[in-house]
Amino acid sequence: MDMNRRRSFGLLFGAALALGTATGPALAQVKEPLVFAAASLKNALDEVATQWQRESGKKVVISYAASNTLIKQIEQGAPADIFMSADLDWMDYGQQKNLIDAQTRSNLLSNRIVLVAPKDASFTLNITPGFDLASALKGGRLAMANVDAVPAGKYGKAALEKLGAWDGVKDKVAQADNVRAALLLVSRGEAPIGIVYRTDAASESAVKVVGTFPEDSHPPITYPVALTKTSTNPDARAFLSYIRSPAARLAFERQGFTILGPGGPRP
Length: 267
Known about the structure:
The chain has 267 residues and is α/β, with parallel strands linked by helices. The strands form two sheets. A six-stranded mixed β-sheet has the order 2-1-3-10-4-11. The protein has a five-stranded mixed β-sheet with strand order 7-6-8-5-9, sandwiched between helices. It has helices at residues 3-18, 42-56, 67-75, 88-96, 133-137, 151-162, 166-169, 179-187, 198-203, 236-243, 246-254, and strands at residues 34-38, 61-65, 82-84, 106-110, 113-118, 142-145, 173-176, 193-197, 207-212, 222-227, 258-259. α2 links the parallel β1 (34-38) and β2 (61-65). It folds into two domains: 3-110 and 222-259, D-Maltodextrin-Binding Protein, domain 2 (3-Layer(aba) Sandwich); 113-217, 3-Layer(aba) Sandwich (D-Maltodextrin-Binding Protein, domain 2).
């Protein structure tokens, strides 16, 4: 492995460890399945991993970041066994680059995007065509994940464009590396409003939902999952099956995800 590639891995894994997103021994030495998962999956997937360990006696290591960052790391040779993306585009990219095992690919979850504000906010916003988001910022910044690459940012920008609100806020956006970083800006009071997933809002007691985007204002939010092409870990396929199982379903639903695929959404 050349020096640049080592440095690239070190940056990603160092960030993951700093966020408390990996468990077990040093990532370079892990024998457990290594999962690369979108940052918005953290609370639910941590719970699923804990359940799996309790039931099977086996551990899984999870690294969370933006989907675009993770698939590019896999492209550079990062030894992930499973990739869980927050949109179809980056999974499609992985499939086009022959980085994932297409036969194991499936759509796992859906989500919603919402506007959040600090928990003591006294306003709500009715998100309809032409709504005045710029005025609601009151001179502050709109926290969003990177609008050109990170799924949550792309969904948010698409929604604002369709609703006619993008031009009024595009110069006031504080872009973050991933959706959890955008959430952090709002929870700390560094941004008065942010666009995050409904599941992110549920995970953070320091914020409140002040508006929910209509589902038809952006492309469907879909979380696909697949084994990577290079995975040889015998437990990776077992964990992939587990996260699709009824045993994992409640953990995802508790965080506000909607289940796709077999079993589908509950009536």
